[in-house]
Design goal:
This protein is mainly alpha-helical. The chain has a two-stranded antiparallel ribbon with strand order 1-2. Strand 1 and strand 2 form a beta hairpin. Helix 2 runs antiparallel to helix 3, helix 3 packs across helix 5 and helix 20 runs antiparallel to helix 21. The longest helix has 18 residues. It is elongated, with a radius of gyration of 27 Å.
Length: 495
């Protein structure tokens, strides 16, 4: 048939029909059942011959159930390869096909969690039914906790944080005899609550009574880590003290369920303290246990830290290469702009592309977005764009609104978004030097508390500009010395 031109053979591959029309003509006489059986037979033969996983999985995808453990292994391996290559639709297809095969409840729950997580990535509520099914399946308590965390995260991202917290509390009651797992669930509750402004301050209040028993006190550690973050943003502790507390909380071994919480929040503080290498190392350590945990409240925090570290290094190519950073869509991150969007706006301004930054900004409506840390930072970025575009009055509105929102959460230090610096520059441009000087002095006072060269240098530069005269020149000279001594991005960048 090859000599006749009916078949052709790819280099080192199998024979194929020479033309799709010829293939269709042959297969048109086959029933769908016969085709599925042929694909199944092909998958079994290719598996015996040691063919690549992707090839075997493709035949399994189109074939009937094999009812052998190897079929599930092949489909899950193929799904993992597709997910790593960012081919989510193919990964979803392989996982859905895997559910057609018989498997133990524990493994089925794991597949449902992965599938539900990928479906939620495509649409905030797309995989809720799969995740709910995984929670209901019988299995080990730790597996059930993983499913519960995934479902709670998905519910929160879809906007139903109340339902997520209620489900976590119900699971706590069911696991009353497992104190370590209860701590994990309560830590998740704290992190989900911290994403909403009305609960951000509650996250820093004394933790509820922790269950007694063996195991890491994750609940207390999560609260302590949030307290460190609060002390930093409130201007109550120095960067050195914050890092000492962080190192104390992350020393030694920890339960894999605890690692993402502790190291993820520690990475956030390390970035603020300008210990960028440490922040990157902590991000990697936090991500290791999450390799197969696609829905977890720490994922978006780790993604934020990664892009923020790139921005702090003025690596604008890396910032703009972030998935969806230059597209006004929220995808799986919930409603409103993400930190990637914020840093992309600033990166585009810094690289002389204000028109592109304006298009990205116009894709969002901050007043309609959730009143979250991410929205506050985006307001600051919009102010940066407007100031660079010669609109100091409109930029001032954004900076002051950013500051008002952050102050309502007890965040006064510009380690999050230097809104006072931006506002002071606008006030000077608008001929209001006394107001600019007041903001610059407050910024300098808080910067001395935190103590990093970036924060202090940025504040002294603004104070020198607002002060003027010989004292202003001396302050500016000190700022130059501080900023020259650090290897990071421009002082305009937030955090």
């Amino acid at each position: 048939m090859t000599r006749l031109g009916l078949l052709r053979r790819d280099a080192g591959g199998p024979h194929r029909y020479a033309h799709p029309l010829l293939r269709d003509a042959v297969l048109s006489g086959w029933t769908s059942g016969r085709r599925r059986e042929a694909h199944r037979a092909a998958a079994e033969e290719l598996m015996r011959e040691g063919a690549p996983v992707a090839v075997v999985a493709w035949h399994l995808l189109h074939g009937s159930a094999v009812a052998e453990p190897w079929a599930v292994d092949v489909l899950l391996d193929a799904a993992a390869e597709e997910a790593r290559a960012d081919r989510q639709r193919s990964a979803v297809a392989f996982l859905r096909r895997a559910l057609d095969e018989p498997m133990e409840p524990v493994r089925r729950a794991a597949v449902l969690i992965q599938l539900g997580s990928l479906e939620c990535a495509a649409h905030p509520s797309g995989g809720l039914a799969r995740l709910a099914q995984a929670v209901r399946l019988p299995g080990d308590s730790r597996d059930r906790v993983r499913a519960t965390i995934a479902l709670a995260t998905a519910l929160a991202r879809s906007g139903d944080t109340v339902a997520a917290q209620r489900m976590l509390r119900e699971e706590e009651q069911r696991l009353a005899g497992r104190p370590g797992l209860v701590r994990t669930l309560r830590a998740v509750t704290v992190l989900l609550s911290d994403a909403t402004p009305h609960a951000a301050r509650a996250g820093h209040e004394p933790p509820p009574p922790a269950p007694v028993g063996d195991g890491p006190d994750l609940l207390d550690a999560a609260h302590r880590m949030l307290a460190v973050r609060h002390g930093a943003t409130a201007g109550l502790i120095s960067s050195r003290e914050a890092m000492e507390r962080v190192r104390a909380l992350t020393e030694g071994s920890a339960d894999p369920l605890a690692v993402p919480f502790l190291h993820g929040m520690a990475a956030l503080v390390a970035h603020w303290a300008d210990e960028l290498d440490t922040a990157e190392r902590l991000v990697r350590r936090a991500l290791d246990p999450l390799a197969s945990f696609l829905l977890h409240p720490m994922h978006h925090i780790l993604a934020d830290v990664r892009v923020d570290v790139a921005a702090a290094r003025a690596d604008y190519d890396a910032v703009l290469a972030e998935p969806l950073a230059r597209t006004p869509t929220t995808w799986s991150s919930g409603s409103g702009p993400t930190s990637a969007h914020t840093q992309a706006v600033i990166a585009l301004v810094e690289t002389g592309r204000p028109e592109e930054a304006a298009r990205l900004v116009d894709g969002f409506d901050p007043p309609a977005a959730p009143d979250s840390w991410r929205t506050h930072r985006f307001l600051y970025a919009r102010g940066v764009l407007r100031a660079a575009s010669g609109e100091p009055a409109r930029a001032l509105e954004d900076f002051l609104e950013c500051g008002r929102r952050q102050a309502s959460l007890g965040a006064h230090l510009s380690v999050v978004s230097p809104w006072r610096v931006g506002a002071a520059e606008c006030l000077l441009a608008l001929g209001r030097p006394h107001e600019a000087l007041a903001l610059a002095e407050e910024e300098a006072r808080l910067a001395e508390v935190w103590g990093t060269a970036r924060i202090r240098g940025r504040a002294l530069r603004m104070l020198g500009e607002a002060t003027g005269g010989r004292r202003g020149l001396r302050l500016t000279s000190r700022a130059v010395g501080l900023l020259r001594g650090r290897r990071a991005g421009p002082s305009r960048s937030p955090r």
